[in-house]
Amino acid sequence: MAKTITKRSWAEPYRMKMVELLKVTTKPQRMKAMRDAGYNTFLLHAEDVYIDLLTDSGTNAMSDQQWAAFMTGDEAYAGSKSYYNMEKAIQKYYGYRYVIPTHQGRGAEHILSQILIKKGDYIPGNMYFTTTRLHQEMAGGTFVDIIVDEAHDPNSEFPFKGNVDMNKLEALVKKVGAEKIPYVCIATNVNMAGGQPISIKNLRELREFTQKHGIRIIHDMTRVAENAFFIQQRESGYEKAKIADIVKEICSLTDGATMSSKKDALVNIGGFLAINDWEIYEEARNLVVAYEGLHTYGGIAGRDMEAIAVGIKESLSDSHQKARVGQVEYLGEKMLEYGIPLVKPFGGHGIFVDAKAFLPHLSQDEFPAQTLAAEIYIDSGVRTMERGIVSAGRNSKGENYHPNLELVRFTIPRRVYTQAHMDVVAESAAMVYERRNKIKGLKMVYEPKFLRFFQARFDKLK
Ligand code: F0G
User: Fold this and answer.
1) Nearest alpha carbon to residue 97 among 253, 220, 275
2) Do domains 27-56+318-460 and 64-315 have the same CATH topology?
């Protein structure tokens, strides 16, 4: 019988003009590569990877328009035209007043933390991010998690797992006093929760509360357009709103932002600090010259600033986000068909596999997510990343954090892979799932001091 149409498909709003060939490896080659990499997917040579889902950071495919803009980059040391183009785009599409370019997101986090945080301060946030928290701690602050409990539960289908639990924030203000809280750090589409959005309603409540207490909101806007897509899909009153307008509204509820343009903004490098307050801007202009470069290039080339300006505009297109998040969803649905335990709802930038549920026979100290990422690479050459106990690191007393979420992130670069690639990825995860009972854990044999997940080495447990 002929099939009837129940749902219309999305498709990429672009076509391919140039392709990059991939290397296909054998299983023995991959076993050796993984051993040489100390069972850490960050230490693999990218050449040995078939489908690279390590991160969506800096791995985007630029459009012909971005490449065209790239060629017009003004590489003047001071006052580059490209800086002013980027500044104009940020002011127009995000609405922030002053802009300091940085080499990437963490450059902006560094400068902002140094300016706003004093020793003994507390920085509440909707879940931590690795580099963000590290810069807060290096400046003498303590991060406090104020995200809703649902965010820590991979099985909760709450639509806004990026929301702030206002009771948690209120309790912190009561305990330490508003003067010890220089700002609340709000990420849009919370990475570590699995790419989960915050609602406008929650952001408004937060704005009202923080204004009452004289506390700023600093926005980690790395994936703001993906967050806006979810608001359009899920928040009542926003069904007909344009992503561009939702993004502008989100930004208007905050006082400034740190941005890694390597994600949403569809480029390969770059970031910025944006702020509405002149005095903070002035201080940032002083610091940026010490750490990044002059305040009109901040560690990136003129051509990169041109590509960012175009990328910001492209990222706000409704059809772009529909295909971008649609592809992530496609992979999630496929993996669910094979019974693989995933964080739900699906995230904006990737699918997060629940490694505790995938490998229940391993304790968290045997690094289930690290183990699973290594196994998937060995199976198919697909590279993923650990987001669990290794990423969480240690507290200031040197004790391991034991996060509830022990995840493997299958992160989808923007405009890079096809639906057929997603099929291969889901099948690989399914193959590993079939032999999950035979999988042994890992032990850490080398641990770096900061952000250990990047460079730690492991050995197989016997
Ligand atoms: N904030 C968030 C939410 C991020 O995801 C990242 C980077 C940063 C800040 C720092 O930006 O890398 O440009 O210095 N996330 C990458 C990832 C590394 O793979 O999730 P950066």
Assistant:
1) 275
2) no
